[in-house]
Amino acid sequence: MPFAANPLIQVTPGLMIWTIVCFLITLYVLKRFAFGPIQKAIDERRERIRQSIEEAEHAREEARTLLVEHQKLIGRAKTDAEEILAEARRIAEANERRMREELETDRQRRLEETRKQIEAETRRALEQIRLEVVDLSLLAATKVTGKALDDSDHRRLIDEAIAELDFSVLEKND
């Protein structure tokens, strides 16, 4: 028996019983002192992993919520910015319109003042021309008549000279 020569292959009932008894004792000791704590550690680890997954899901939901809120805030900020820009444009346009109206009013006022000054200067110039005409008329009358005239003669000659002059031509030129 070639197989019987090898002691590892031989069936020995006493050794077999002691091996089974040792195995059962080892199994009992492992179950009592090793498998319980190992199973407990595995259960605790499983629970920590489950909690971590729940926390991750909760964090993901929170992140989604924050993202939605952030997008809403950005949308609101854009809307607010557009409203502010529109209001600024409206105010700028109103200021520009007001400035134009003030400038136009000021221009009209200056034109009116200038027109009044021109009219006053024209009247003053016409009055001065009348006085010059009177002086020239008196001088011419004195030379023509060769005598000095009294006040009534002066008045009569002045009135005649003025009546003959046409000042309307000068007034139309302004």
Description:
- It contains three helices and no strands.
- The chain has 174 residues and is mostly helical.
- Helix 1 (13-145) crosses helix 2 (151-164).
Task: For this entry, give a set of tags.
mainly alpha, 3 helices
Quick recap of the structure?
The chain is mainly alpha-helical and 174 residues long. The chain has helices at 13-145, 151-164, 168-172.
Q: CA-to-CA gap between the ends?
A: 155 Å
Task: Sketch the major β-sheet.
Answer: none
Measured on Cα atoms, how large is the radius of gyration?
63 Å
**Count of DSSP E strands?**
0
Quaternary organisation: single chain
Helix content: over 70%
* Uncertain spans: none
The average pLDDT is 86
Large-scale geometry: rod-shaped
Which secondary-structure class do the elements indicate? Answer: mainly alpha
From N to C, what is the helix and strand string? HHH
Number of helices in the DSSP assignment = 3
Q: Kindly estimate the percentage of residues that lie in beta strands according to DSSP.
A: under 5%
Task: Please give the structural blueprint.
Elements: H1 13-145, H2 151-164, H3 168-172
Helix pairs in contact: 1-2
